[in-house]
């Protein structure tokens, strides 16, 4: 299971993702839809662990994704932009 818990992120003083909470069950698929500049790519990067949230956390199988190495994350999920 992949979970974002009250995740927020900003580039400088510009907030991009604010207080997002979501859960993707094991084996699930997710599509992010929205207008240009709405934070879709940033949210994907947060969920993939390539960006760290400034608030909240992203958990993969109950473990903060920031604690897992890139290889451990890659064995459990794939991201297709």
Provide keyphrases for this structure.
81 residues; alpha+beta; Rossmann fold; 4-stranded antiparallel sheet; 4 strands; 20% helix
Short recap of the structure:
With 81 residues, the chain is of the alpha+beta class. 20% of the residues lie in helices and 36% in strands. It has helices at residues 40-48, 70-76, and strands at residues 2-11, 14-24, 55-60, 63-64.
Note down, in words, how this protein is organized.
It is a single chain. This protein has 81 residues and is α+β, with helices and mostly antiparallel strands. It has a single domain (2-76), classed as P-loop containing nucleotide triphosphate hydrolases (Rossmann fold), CATH 3.40.50. It has helices at 40-48, 70-76, and strands spanning 2-11, 14-24, 55-60, 63-64. A hairpin with a 2-residue loop joins strand 1 and strand 2. The protein is globular, with a radius of gyration of 12 Å.
């Amino acid at each position: 299971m992949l979970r974002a818990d009250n995740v927020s992120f900003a580039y400088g003083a510009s907030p991009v993702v604010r207080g997002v909470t979501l859960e993707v069950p094991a084996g699930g698929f997710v599509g992010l839809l929205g207008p240009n500049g709405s934070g879709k790519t940033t949210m994907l990067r947060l969920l993939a662990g390539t960006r760290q949230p400034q608030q909240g956390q992203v958990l993969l199988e109950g473990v903060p994704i920031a604690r897992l190495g890139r290889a451990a994350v890659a064995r459990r999920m794939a991201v297709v932009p």
